[in-house]
Amino acid sequence: MSRLDRLKISLSVHxxxxxxxxxxxxxxxxxxxxxxxxxxxxxxxxxxxxAAGETKKRAPSGxxxxxxxxxxADEVNVRxxxxxxxxxxxxxxxxxxxxxxxxxxETWRKIRDSSGAEGWVHRAMLSGRRSIVVVDKQTTMRxxxxxxSPAIARLNPGIVAQIERCDPVxxxxxxxxxxxxxxxxxxxxxxxxxNPN
Length: 197
Hints:
Elements: H1 3-13, H2 25-42, E1 49-51, E2 54-55, E3 67-71, E4 76-79, E5 88-92, E6 98-105, E7 108-112, E8 118-122, E9 126-127, E10 131-134, E11 139-142, E12 151-155, E13 160-166, E14 170-175, E15 178-183, E16 187-188
Antiparallel strand pairs: 1-2, 3-6, 3-9, 4-5, 6-7, 7-8, 10-13, 10-16, 11-12, 13-14, 14-15
């Protein structure tokens, strides 16, 4: 029995499919995968840095990673891994809550919330519509993007708002029937120099 036959048997015992490849092809694939793995390990497991701290990392979907999205449904199961066979770790019960996608696997997205908790959700449970959540302390929603502009409302930590547009310091948002401007520093769901318009 050849080494290749033993490998096929070993793979089938573990429930993996074996491809019928032409002679020499398995070795080429092994070498390519080894080089890719070595490149990631030697680089500390991170994508290469191209400019001013920005990583050019693209997900299988073709979209950038990491990126912010919001929850699309009222109830979203967050699982321990990418698939229904993994147990549910917790359930989000907050539609439009912003989350950060940090990884992708087929139709599953690994997300992180504002507290740093991570888990996997199906992509159908996410929306590209952007939102923010107030963190740490109460913030003031103002009529105009100025600190001396009249206050419209005071937003407590945990309040979620839909983003209308942003400038480098302020974001125009809508929440619970109120429209106004809040400072970017008081919320989570935006990258520092990002323009989500």
